[in-house]
Design a protein that fits this description.
This protein has 349 residues and is of the alpha/beta class. The chain has two domains: 6-36 and 259-347, Aspartate Aminotransferase, domain 1, CATH 3.90.1150; 39-257, Aspartate Aminotransferase, domain 2. Helix content is 36%, strand content 15%. It has helices at residues 6-10, 39-47, 62-72, 84-97, 112-119, 161-169, 225-236, 245-256, 258-281, 303-312, 336-347; strands spanning 26-27, 79-82, 101-106, 123-127, 145-149, 175-179, 201-206, 219-223, 293-297, 315-316, 318-319, 328-332. Strand 11 and strand 12 (328-332) form a beta hairpin. The N and C termini lie far apart (52 Å).
C-alpha cells in the first residue's frame, strides 16, 4: 500500500553535505567553524544541574532573546529564536509566503529555498544572477516577497547595506527576508539596523557558523513586532519548544563572549584570504569571499576531477553537478594546517 501523500511523493528533498563517521578526514564541505565554541559554553555544560532537564524549557527563549537584544541594541519583542536558522526560515516561508506567487529569489543560492517552496506551495520567481554571480538589485521589484542570502551561498558574494535597503524599498507589498548566515565574515553591514525603518524586513542569522554551535541548532530572526508575532503564531502551531534549555544557555554564553567570537572570526577571515591568494597564484579563478568558505573554479582541470582527487586524499569539499556552477567547488575554511594540506593536495594536480 502507498502511504505517502502526493506532496511527500513528489518533493525533492535537500541534500546535506557528507558527514564521515571514521577519523582522519579533513572536512571542508559543510561550512562548519574549525574552532571550538567559547570556553563559556563549556562552563554552561559543566555547571548545569541535570535534574533541571526534567522540566520543559522556556518556550520563548527569553534569556537568549535578551542577550541578542543587548548585543544588537534592539528590543526583545523584535527577536524570534528557533531550532537553527533552517527552522526559522521554514517557519518564515509558512508565515509569509505560503500559497503566494511572485516570491523573488536568486537562481543560485541556498538549496533549501526551492524545497520549502515545494513544501509550502510557494510560487517563486527565480531570477538569474549576473555572469559574475552578482545579484542585480534592479531585478528585485514589486514582488509579493523576497528571499536572498547575504552574503550569498555558494558564491560568497555580498550586497551592501544600501543595496539591501533598495530591495526592501522596491518590494513594499511583501516580506523581504535577508538570510545572513555568513554576515559575521563579511566586509558589509548587517541589515539588522534597518528593521526599525521597514516593517516588512526580516533578518535571519544563525549560531552555527561564527559561534561554532552547529551541533546545537540555534538560529534567530530580527524584525518588526508584526513579523515576529507572525513567526510566533506559526511556531506555536508546530512546536512550542523549539530550543532546549541547554541550547538556550549555551547560545547566551556564546553571544556574550564577544572577544572570543571576534578572535575566531578574524582567524577564519585571515586564513580564508591567505588560501584565496594561494589558489589564485596557481591560476584558479576565486571570487572575493564574504563568508567562511571559498568558491573556486577549476582551471585546466574539471571540478569533478579535483573533487575526486581531494576525496581520494580524505579531503571533503562541496561539488554540484548543476547548471552554471558545475565547474566550481565550494571549500569551507578550516584551520591553517587543514588549508595548507588542502592547497598542497590541489597543487599536486
Amino acid at each position: 500500500m502507498d502511504y505517502l501523500s502526493e506532496k511527500a511523493k513528489h518533493i525533492t528533498p535537500y541534500v546535506s553535505g557528507i558527514q564521515p563517521r571514521e577519523p582522519g578526514w579533513i572536512k571542508l564541505n559543510t561550512n562548519e567553524n574549525p574552532y571550538p565554541p567559547s570556553p563559556k559554553v563549556a562552563d554552561v555544560f559543566a555547571n548545569t544541574d541535570i535534574a533541571t532537564l526534567r522540566l520543559y524549557p522556556d518556550s520563548d527563549s527569553t534569556m537568549l532573546r535578551e542577550a541578542i537584544a543587548s548585543r544588537y541594541n534592539i528590543c526583545t519583542e523584535n527577536i524570534f529564536c528557533g531550532n537553527g536558522s533552517d527552522e526559522v526560515l521554514a517557519l518564515a516561508y509558512q508565515a509569509f509566503f505560503s500559497g503566494r506567487e511572485n516570491i523573488l529569489t536568486p537562481d543560485i543560492s541556498y538549496a533549501f529555498y526551492p524545497v520549502w517552496s515545494q513544501m509550502y506551495d510557494v510560487s517563486s520567481k527565480v531570477l538569474p544572477l549576473d555572469d559574475d554571480f552578482s545579484i542585480n538589485i534592479g531585478d528585485y521589484k514589486n514582488g509579493n516577497g523576497v528571499i536572498i542570502p547575504n552574503p550569498n551561498a555558494p558564491t560568497g558574494k555580498a550586497l551592501t547595506l544600501c543595496e539591501v535597503e533598495q530591495i526592501v524599498k522596491s518590494n513594499p507589498n511583501g516580506v523581504v527576508i535577508i538570510d545572513e548566515a555568513y554576515i559575521d565574515f563579511a566586509a558589509v553591514e548587517s541589515a539588522v539596523s534597518l528593521i526599525s525603518t521597514y516593517e516588512n524586513l526580516l533578518v535571519i542569522q544563525t549560531f552555527s557558523k561564527s559561534y561554532s554551535l552547529a551541533g546545537l541548532r540555534v538560529g534567530f530572526a530580527v524584525g518588526s513586532k508584526t513579523l515576529i508575532d507572525g513567526l510566533q503564531r506559526v511556531k506555536n502551531a508546530f512546536n512550542s519548544y523549539p530550543l532546549g534549555m541547554l541550547e538556550q544557555k549555551a547560545a547566551t554564553a556564546a553571544i556574550c563572549d564577544v572577544d572570543y567570537w571576534n578572535k575566531t572570526r578574524q582567524d577564519i577571515i585571515r586564513t580564508r584570504d591567505k588560501t584565496i591568494e594561494s589558489l589564485r597564484g596557481m591560476g584558479y579563478h576565486v571570487p572575493e569571499s564574504h563568508t567562511n568558505f571559498i568558491f573556486m573554479k577549476a582551471n585546466g582541470n574539471s571540478a569533478k576531477n579535483i573533487y575526486e582527487h581531494l576525496l581520494e586524499n580524505k579531503i571533503l569539499v562541496r561539488y554540484w553537478q548543476k547548471p552554471r556552477i558545475s565547474e566550481f567547488l565550494r571549500v569551507s575554511v578550516g584551520t591553517d594546517k587543514e588549508m595548507e594540506l588542502f592547497v598542497q593536495c590541489v597543487r599536486q594536480l
